[in-house]
Design a protein that fits this description.
alpha/beta; seven-stranded parallel beta sheet; 33 helices; 19% strand
Length: 1026
């Protein structure tokens, strides 16, 4: 199986952030220089012509041609477009004095490595820079980076026509440095910090004159290239010794990539934990914890595993209690019990359970009540039963249950589910003193796995879809489904705990290259459904190596220590999963239904989540939270006319609007009123004339102040909601489903001359390009100076300020392939792009000289907008014979948290429905009690309509009783549920496409399905009765 890579906008933005800092830099394909040939050993017989030991022409990176002012202007332009705080100077660093030091903040799991590899390719394409050094903090990351460069090589070959040549620095293979210096194309050296900042003899070789390297010092040969240094995880390479060592590379530019920068330099891009979650770029997190709590009334052992709900039955509790086995010892067994179950009888007469009954089973609160008044929460152990083994067994059982739940859901979609156990000593998994070599955890795993699989095989429906999964469960023996990844002792070939770093930032992490090699080598094999291994046990010291995208469950079978944060622990499982074709499962409609990481921990849910939330919000400390006129002023917003800066007057109007409507708390943070109104789509109408037309474009700015870190869900809560078979089988519902379940394809036929005309009109009307400006200030030093004036930079009085606009851009000596850039960004043919550009007025075209970069991006944006509207206008749907199967109501149905489910319903096709907002909750209540409605369904995510702007999943399908209304079959979208996308125009486009889809169905099949957007039940009734 090969992982597939595709171009994703959020990654392109991170690449552009760095590349645009050097806009205006002329392109040089490397500067030739003579590589220091060193002193070759004299040959014994002198020859007439000494053959050259090496080729002596090297290609180094060209110097930066921009003045410091131009660099700062570019940096501020990048920061402004990303609404980051503006730098007033470029921060220096001991790692590269005098060179630009740029920070890129990217959350773990969003493809940081891919981004910096692409950045290298783009810097080479634009400016000709070709020598790069990637510095990493550990062996694990070094091996991972090398693997990533190899995996993406083909992808970049297709995009750029070339691929990077990379090698890992090794002091005994110095010929690689010659190639690094002399070869053209992108050259990448990967080196871990220990290879040049530690004092061991082998690691000092980089600074020594070496006989086997023609008496040269490797560091001199490297630094002559003026390489661009990329530091991965810079917070782990911050010791003074490391910075001093880095400075010897003589870097042209230093780029730092991390999710957590400890020392800030010049930040040009931010994609933090909150952005990554909101943009659905990483998995959602769910937690299963163990709560320890003393039960007052009983001394008996009792553990509530979970509460189950099934079709047509009352909720049942899955409880582990002690049972007196016939003539044998007391054993703990898991039983399924109903209300009024007598625990004394079930335990075969164990005295401690005498008089204990279950009096209530509550699926919404996830608790059972006992006859002595005790309330037991799912996942709760009583204090006296807490032994290490009891906890670990429960954790292993929970991992297996969570794993099999996920697997059952995702098997049909071709997604292999992996679970990862971290343990702190190998002996717990491999015990070589026993015949079967199984350690305690492996033995517990096999017992629990066999029992749970038997249980599930008994529960699976007897249908075609389940038959394939049943065969998959039965295919592999329990011994084949788990595997340990550890360091291997070379002599005994036994798994061992392995060598770890004892000091520094990497303390406690493994330094065993072979173990990481194995993990990386098996990365793709483990993603295949043909490979039986699904449960992986690994040493916690090896955690940095595990970046497998299909890890869905993590079990921490080790004592939590404070050295590793919870965030780092779960970071290994945050990447989005891939299917059997290697395609990423990132469709925005279903991404968080599929990609959910369950963490099984031995602390309680609340403790783990509180700790995790705190770590995430600490990492967001630099984000602004308070609204103010100053915050809004000067920020960039996207309007119909392109990018626009918020003037102070508009910022004031917005701030007043927020205060007037109680959208701010006393400390100027966003209030709950604002969040609720925004969610429901009922924000107050502004009174200010200036604000009215632009409020919707300003809202993303306001929302950026909302730093509510979404709490991970409690994974014990969600349950599969049973289908109401009677409602599902009703003739009204089946008739409605038959009318709407067509799969369809769309095609777009539009006249390119019409598109050209529209684009020319849009460019002439809306294309705005800012001329480059420079400000000259003259000033005199103040007569009396305070020490504070100096530190605050106020030691001078400004006597005159003049702003000059450059009529010819500073970058005018750079050649741009205008047509090439526009065609690449708009995916139009060169011919169409040429027709558009030659059709605009001379005044519009002259703007290109003012600021070529901005001209290209703005023109491309406007053309893309015109293209999108043309596509929606000229869209036609063709219904296919192929239809959505009714299995999407039963099979892919994800588990739901019943806390938002309300009461049992009578007319819905499921017994409960989980709603996203108050608007939806009210809508459900009214539908369920309506006399006119026969049956209705919240449509599952598996049902969607393809559109050019992404798949669209309508909310509701409603069938009315015949004779009560004019339009019996109705598909509805409730307002407010779509507004969270915040993408201007996208939701309108999807709704427009849906109207066309249903219109074409009605026309083709003579149907009468009505589709519309409604805010509430009253509006729905008006639409179906008129």
């Amino acid at each position: 199986m090969k992982l597939q890579f595709k171009i994703q906008q959020y990654q392109t933005d991170a690449v552009d952030a760095v590349v645009e800092v050097f806009a205006g830099q002329p392109k040089h394909d490397g500067v030739s220089y003579r590589i220091d040939p060193g002193r070759a050993k004299p040959a014994t017989a002198p020859m007439l012509f000494e053959p050259s030991a090496t080729s002596d022409s090297g290609l180094r990176n060209a110097e930066i041609a921009l003045t410091p002012t131009q660099r700062l202007d570019n940096v501020q332009h990048v920061q402004r477009s990303r609404n980051l705080p503006l730098s007033d100077k470029l921060v220096d660093s001991k790692a590269a004095p005098g060179a630009p030091n740029l920070d890129v903040e990217m959350e773990t799991g969003t493809g940081k490595t891919y981004v910096y590899i692409k950045t290298m390719m783009e810097l080479h394409k634009r400016y000709g820079w070709s020598k790069f050094i990637i510095v990493v903090p550990s062996v694990a990351i070094r091996e991972g980076v090398k693997k990533s460069i190899d995996l993406t090589a083909e992808h970049f070959q297709q995009t750029y026509g070339s691929k990077p040549r990379s090698f890992i620095y090794n002091s005994s293979q110095l010929h690689e440095l010659e190639r690094f210096s002399s070869d053209a194309g992108v050259q990448v050296m990967i080196i871990n910090i220990q290879a040049f900042n530690s004092t061991s003899k082998d690691n000092r070789r980089i600074y020594d004159e070496l006989d086997d390297f023609q008496s040269r010092r490797p560091i001199d040969v490297i630094s002559a290239n003026r390489p661009i240094v990329i530091i991965d995880e810079p917070q782990k390479i911050s010791a003074p010794k490391s910075l001093e060592a880095l400075s010897r590379f003589n870097a042209l530019i230093v780029l730092r990539y991390s999710a957590t920068h400890k020392v800030e330099h010049t930040k040009v891009h931010r994609l933090d934990a909150l952005d990554a979650y909101n943009q659905k770029l990483v998995k959602k997190i769910a937690v299963r914890g163990i709560t320890v709590k003393g039960l007052a009334g009983t001394t008996a052992y009792l553990y509530l595993d979970a509460i189950e709900i099934a079709k047509g039955a009352k909720p049942r509790a899955r409880v582990e209690i002690e049972v007196q086995t016939k003539g044998g010892p007391i054993a703990r067994q898991v039983k399924r019990l109903d209300v009024r179950a007598n625990l004394h009888d079930i335990s075969n007469g164990i005295e401690a359970y005498k008089g204990l009954f279950i009096t209530d089973i509550d699926a919404n609160r996830d608790v059972i009540e006992l006859s002595n008044g005790d309330v037991v929460i799912a996942g709760q152990l009583s204090a006296r039963d807490v032994t290490e083994e009891a906890k670990r067994r429960i954790q292993i059982r929970e991992v297996i249950r969570a794993h099999l739940d996920k697997e059952r859901e995702l098997f049909a979609q071709g997604v292999k589910v992996l679970s990862l156990f971290f343990i702190d000593e190998v002996a717990k998994y491999r015990d070589y003193g026993r015949e079967d070599t199984l350690g305690d955890y492996a033995r517990i795993f096999e017992e629990e796995y066999a029992a749970i699989v038997d249980e599930i095989l008994g529960e699976l429906e007897i249908d075609v879809a389940s038959a394939a999964y049943r065969a998959y469960l039965r295919r592999d023996d329990v011994r084949a489904v788990h595997e340990g990844y550890f360091s291997i002792d070379k002599k005994t070939k036994h798994a061992v705990d392995g060598p770890v770093h004892t000091t520094g930032d990497e303390k406690g992490q493994s330094k065993d290259v072979d173990a990481y090699d194995l993990i990386l080598k098996d990365k793709e094999r483990l993603l295949s459904l043909a490979e039986p291994v699904r449960f992986i046990f690994s040493h916690s010291a090896l955690r940095e190596g595990w970046d497998n995208p299909n890890v869905f469950v993590m079990g921490m079978l080790k004592k939590s220590d404070n050295t590793v944060s919870r965030r780092q622990e779960i970071g290994r499982g945050l990447r989005l999963a891939v299917d059997q074709r290697g395609e990423r499962m990132d469709n925005p409609v279903t991404v968080h239904d599929i990609n959910e990481l369950t963490v099984v921990t031995d602390e309680s849910y609340t403790d783990f989540v509180a700790g995790l939330q705190k770590e995430i919000s600490d990492s967001l400390a630099a984000r602004p939270r308070k609204a103010s006129v100053k915050f809004f002023t000067g920020k960039t917003i996207q309007t119909e006319d392109g990018e626009s800066l918020v003037e102070e007057a508009l910022a004031q109007a917005l701030y007043k609007y927020l205060i007037k409507n109680d959208y701010l708390n006393d400390d100027d943070t966003l209030s709950d009123d604002y969040k609720a109104a925004k969610e429901a789509g009922i924000l107050a109408e502004p009174t200010s004339e200036a604000l009215k037309p632009v409020l919707k474009f300003l809202l993303p700015l306001v929302d950026s102040l909302n730093i509510d870190v979404p709490a991970p869900t409690d994974d014990r809560k969600p349950k599969k909601i049973p289908l109401n078979a009677a409602n599902f089988a009703k003739k009204e519902f089946q008739a409605l489903w038959r009318r709407i379940n067509h799969k369809a394809v769309y095609q777009v036929e539009f006249d390119s001359s019409e598109l050209v005309a529209k684009c020319i009109h849009a460019l002439d009307k809306h294309l705005k390009v800012a001329a480059m400006q420079y400000v000259v200030q003259a000033g005199t030093q103040r007569d009396a100076l305070e020490a504070d004036d100096l530190t605050s930079g106020a030691g001078f009085d400004v006597s005159s300020t003049a702003t000059h606009t450059a009529t010819v851009s500073a970058a005018s000596q750079v050649r741009y392939d205008l047509l090439g850039e526009i065609t690449e960004k708009t995916q139009l043919t060169r011919r169409t792009a040429a027709a558009i550009l030659s059709g605009v007025t001379p005044e519009t075209f002259a703007k290109f000289r003012l600021n070529p970069e901005q001209f290209i991006t703005e023109a491309a944006r406007l053309i893309n907008e015109q293209k999108a509207t043309a596509i929606v206008e000229h869209l036609t749907y063709d219904a296919l014979e192929d239809r959505f199967d009714t299995a999407i109501f039963t099979e892919n149905q994800t588990k739901q948290d019943l806390t938002h489910a309300g009461n049992k319903l009578t007319k819905h096709i499921y017994d409960y429905v989980v709603t996203d907002s108050k608007v939806e909750r009210k809508f459900v209540t009214e539908l369920d009690t309506s006399e006119e409605v026969a049956v209705y369904a919240k449509l599952p995510r598996g049902f969607f309509i393809p559109t050019p702007v992404g798949d669209y999943n309508p909310d509701w399908a409603i069938a009315f009783t015949e004779g009560t209304v004019k339009h019996i079959y109705f598909v509805a979208e409730t307002k407010g549920s779509l507004s969270t996308l915040q993408l201007k125009g996208v939701e309108d486009a999807k709704i427009e496409c849906a109207r066309k889809f249903f219109a074409s169905l009605n026309e083709k099949n003579g149907e009468n399905v009505k589709y519309d957007v409604v805010t509430d039940y009253t509006e729905l009734m008006q639409l179906v009765t008129t």
